[in-house]
Amino acid sequence: MNDINAWVWWLVAAAGLGIPLVVTAMPEFGMLAVGAVAAAAVSGLGGGVVLQVLVFSVVSVALIAVVRPIAARHRAQQPQLATGVEALKGKQAVVMVRIDGSDGGRIKLAGEIWSARALDAGQSYEVGQEVDVVDIEGATAIIM
After folding, report:
1. Which end of the chain lies in a sparser environment, N or C, as judged by fewer CB atoms within 10 Å?
2. 1 falls within a domain
3. Mean pLDDT for the stretch of residues 36-41
4. Residues 45, 11: one domain?
């Protein structure tokens, strides 16, 4: 064991920290692995054990302190591009089959025919009238 250089052990530690990163998807393990790679570089350049451990600690803590809050902010942001039914909310549609308070009807929305019902049960919409989609419940568009 004494025949292997310290930088090899740091690279083994980096690989060892990469395994839980992949298995658990916790980015902190990746940041610790980068710290181990930095310590391997210091060892390869001839730095002592104390300097290696210091570099490992400083790089790892700095990455966790800087990158983690940025990643948390990005994770909390809503996507700017709405997709699926979220993209259909607020769009305009054309009534294809009359919609009144008691019965639903059909609308043409984004090139497709959808079942629809009025948001206000007392409201009715005639064929050809343009309406706004306010919500999607299952396969039914809620219009006004």
Report:
1. N
2. no
3. 95
4. yes
